[in-house]
């Protein structure tokens, strides 16, 4: 899993100048004060973090540029157009709207609601227009290349209308915050042509062939829908020009909305993640945004909805299930998970639900239907809670004649909990780690090493000794209490 920051371009340079520092000092501050701490705040498990100011990126961007130039897909020409500094993109008429308020009477970018600038430059151009039909052919032959379906339809429609060649350089006479064009150091590389290459420079392109072959083509790029065209049109055309394989899928996710508008620092309508995690914890943050908002679509954040889901689904639904299962194993079998006796119909039903939940969740994750995958997992949470309620282990424990049945009920409850533990690890990793330590005694290996596709294979839990389990989702005190 790769993430990172694209740090070149006029927008960054202007921000640095407004803050009275160099561009490099400005991006260093942003990365170290904002981006890296955010990854820790919400427990992102990325294996690499690429900065486009790193030498490993800059050197290999130039190698890629030279390869495409030598192949005849880059030429020099002049261009005049409306440029949005916020998007770092030339805009066509369909991307502009009439300004309001202080920008009334001006054409503004539909994304940033700020005026565009008319630029006329002599730049280097990428022959994007030559890739219209190859791109359309690829979309047709690989129907899942762009997802969700609404995003694919938008891109296909856009490309079908025809593509213009793309300006991929800026004259240093304008500004110099970027990577030099290798054959002409009076120009720097257009920020998007530079930034898109991070996907391959981070995994060894140009310097580590073995590593590159291990990781490319990428399984999936997950990007904001407002930059989908860069990733689903320009990026695959760049790769085609270089004679390289394309990523297997581009997925354009939606926006988080406040008051019907996209969260934005410039509009001062964002919600700082720490405001949520400081109250509910990172697991609840992750669970809510993966479950409550359909991935791929826009959705609105609600404190009330988050609080209700935390209490009903995480605390009462899953957290209480884990606590009472382990508590009963400790109480009735001295903390050792018992082995089951004969399975009754109610046990077989639980096993069937567990197997289906696991298979469905695994399939839906592959389809990037994350919310649906969690819904599938929760069928097992609900079934386990119902299983314990109907089986009444606290009643069975009152009569020694029911010992074997009690053993079966608590084994099935514990084994179901193991399956949930593995399936929910990518969603709520902190709670999952605590439960895994309490449930398995280390006998099943590390939780991170468990194969999710095999989680539903029943009967993996042996006679381990459970340990104390802290409350996974503590009660949140309201301001009135």
> Distance between termini?
42 Å
Q: Can you give the helix content as a percent range? A: 40-55%
- CATH arch. level architecture of the largest domain: 3-Layer(aba) Sandwich
Query: How much β-strand is present in the residues?
Result: 5-15%
Quaternary structure type: single chain
Please give the count of helices: 17
Chain-averaged pLDDT:
92
CATH superfamily of the largest domain: HUPs
Strand order of the largest sheet: 4-3-7-9
CATH topology of the largest domain, which one?
Rossmann fold
Quick one: how many beta strands? 17
Protein described:
With 481 residues, this protein is α/β, with parallel strands linked by helices. The protein has two domains: 2-253, Rossmann fold (3-Layer(aba) Sandwich), CATH 3.40.50; 275-454, Isoleucyl-tRNA Synthetase, Domain 1, CATH 1.10.730. Helix content is 47%, strand content 14%. It has helices at 10-18, 23-41, 55-70, 132-141, 149-160, 191-195, 198-201, 209-215, 228-241, 273-280, 282-291, 303-333, 345-366, 370-391, 393-396, 403-424, 429-440; strands spanning 2-5, 48-51, 74-84, 89-91, 96-98, 107-109, 117-126, 146-147, 166-167, 169-171, 180-181, 184-189, 221-224, 250-253, 256-258, 261-262, 299-300. Helix 10 crosses helix 11, helix 13 packs antiparallel against helix 14 (370-391) and helix 14 runs antiparallel to helix 16 (403-424). It starts with a strand and ends in a 41-residue tail after the last helix.
């Amino acid at each position: 899993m790769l993430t990172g920051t694209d740090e070149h371009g006029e927008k960054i340079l202007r921000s640095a100048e407004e803050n009275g520092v160099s561009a490099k000092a400005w991006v260093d501050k942003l990365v170290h004060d904002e981006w890296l701490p955010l990854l820790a705040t919400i427990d992102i498990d990325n294996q690499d973090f690429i900065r486009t100011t790193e030498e490993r990126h800059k050197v290999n961007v130039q190698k890629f540029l030279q390869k495409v130039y030598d192949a005849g897909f880059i030429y020099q020409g002049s261009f005049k157009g409306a440029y949005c500094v916020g998007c770092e993109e030339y805009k066509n008429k369909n991307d502009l709207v009439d300004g309001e308020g202080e920008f009334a009477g001006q054409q503004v970018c539909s994304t940033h609601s700020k005026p565009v600038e008319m630029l006329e430059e002599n730049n280097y151009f990428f022959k994007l227009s030559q890739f219209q039909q190859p791109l359309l052919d690829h979309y047709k032959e690989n129907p899942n290349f762009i997802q969700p379906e609404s995003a694919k339809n938008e891109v296909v429609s856009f490309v079908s209308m025809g593509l213009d060649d793309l300006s991929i350089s800026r004259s240093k006479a304008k500004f110099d915050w970027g990577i030099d064009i290798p054959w002409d150091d009076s120009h720097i590389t257009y920020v998007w042509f530079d930034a898109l290459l991070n996907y391959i420079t981070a995994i060894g392109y140009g310097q580590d062939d073995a590593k590159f072959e291990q990781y490319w083509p990428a399984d999936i790029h997950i990007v904001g829908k407002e930059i989908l065209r860069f990733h689903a049109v320009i990026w695959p055309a760049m790769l085609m020009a270089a004679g390289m394989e394309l990523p297997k899928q581009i997925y354009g996710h939606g926006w988080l909305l406040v008051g019907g508008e996209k969260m934005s620092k410039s509009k001062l309508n964002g919600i700082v993640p720490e405001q949520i995690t400081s109250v509910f914890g990172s697991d609840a943050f992750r669970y809510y945004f993966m479950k409550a908002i359909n991935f791929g679509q826009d959705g609105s954040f609600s404190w009330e909805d988050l609080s209700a889901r935390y209490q009903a689904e995480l605390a009462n639904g899953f957290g209480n299930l884990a606590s009472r299962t382990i508590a009963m194993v400790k109480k009735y079998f001295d903390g050792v998970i018992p082995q089951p006796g004969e399975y009754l119909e109610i046990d077989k039903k639980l096993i069937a639900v567990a197997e289906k939940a696991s298979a469905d969740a695994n399939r839906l994750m592959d389809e990037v239907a994350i919310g649906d995958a969690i819904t599938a997992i929760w069928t097992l949470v609900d079934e386990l809670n119902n299983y314990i309620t109907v089986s009444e282990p606290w009643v069975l424990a009152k009569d020694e004649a029911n010992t074997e049945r009690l053993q079966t009920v608590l084994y099935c409850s514990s084994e179901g909990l193991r399956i949930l533990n593995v399936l929910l690890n990518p969603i709520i990793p902190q709670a999952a780690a605590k439960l895994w330590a309490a449930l398995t005694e280390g006998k099943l290996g590390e939780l991170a090493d468990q194969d999710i596709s095999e989680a539903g294979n029943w009967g993996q839990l042996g006679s381990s000794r459970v340990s104390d389990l802290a409350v996974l989702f503590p009660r949140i005190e309201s301001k009135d209490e």
